[in-house]
Amino acid sequence: xxxxxxxxxxxxxxxxxxxxxxxxxxxxxxxxxxxxxxxxxxxxxxxxxxxxxxxxxxxxxxxxxxxxxxxxxxxxxxxxxxxxxxxxxxxxxxxxxxxxxxxxxxxxxxxxxxxxxxxxxxxxxxxxxxxxxxxxxxxxxxxxxxxxxxxxxxxxxxxxxxxxxxxxxxxxxxxxxxxxxxxxxxxxxxxxxxxxxxxxxxxxxxxxxxxxxxxxxxxxxxxxxxxxxxxxxxxxxxxxxxxxxxxxxxxxxxxxxxxxxxxxxxxxxxxxxxxxxxxxxxxxxxxxxxxxxxxxxxxxxxxxxxxxxxxxxxxxxxxxxxxxxxxxxxxxxxxxxxxxxxxxxxxxxxxxxx
Length: 354
Ligand code: KG4
Ligand code: ZN
Known about the structure:
5-stranded mixed beta sheet; 354 residues; 2 domains; alpha/beta; single chain; binds 5'-O-[(R)-(carboxyoxy)(hydroxy)phosphoryl]adenosine; 10 helices; Nucleotidyltransferase, domain 5
């Protein structure tokens, strides 16, 4: 049965619920204020400190969160025009993520909510990426999937194909056996001498390159699972060989290399989407996670939607990469069910299910 999110929450949505969302799972410190599912503010402080190291340094991330969290929350409340005493709850990322980073957000949420005497809500980061589809800035810009739908969540830490039955029930159909899609973008970018995070740069250069210039293998994996470490290794050996012949090979072929790598990653992802549509009969497909900002992936999904009669959903850019609006909207759904956490709550590093 197809049930729209509006039917699910119509009565409760008549009440205005203000939720502060906090995201601190990796290297973005973010705070958002939502009135029900409407985003009033969504402030994201990126941590530039990691670029010099070619990847996120957990200890530096925790320290940066500690420095950023109060100003970011303060800014989010001001931008939303909401006073802290108007808040009904604080939702925070409980995991998965870097444990030190999660502890900063969790501890802040506990202390802030305790001082205001309001409940706290622990949110699963991966569930929040999916539910980002139900946050909106303006009612007119809403474009929401109906249940059930398939969601491909592609980020720096995870690659998951999910069957979403409603806001509370999600089933993991497949995941990566090794590197995540975003990790593959970032590691291959590093092999080409690009700074971290390399995903957006590959996307940028790929736009002007030939996706068929170089051929890399598309992995063959079981069912709905993915694998990206073989691609990384094959690019590594390919570049080593080519650089022996011409030390400027990467610089001279950067656009074609980026386009070819991106094409291989997108083909791998799209093959599994096709397979999932065939197996489940569900033809509403959503993208989520940082890699859903990729222009090539967005176009491939949209084109496939037109060609096969699928309904496709891609969140606005600000809700793709890690952000607190998605945490607050996931928190709102839990608020409606009264699913609150206690002050004993401890964050978790690993994804263990929905
Ligand atoms: O969801 P996210 O912000 O954080 C995690 O939870 O991991 O995803 C970050 C990942 C990084 O690997 C980054 O390189 C990738 O998303 N990314 C992109 C693009 N924008 C961000 N990858 C490819 N193309 C992009 N435009
Ligand atoms: Zn994420």
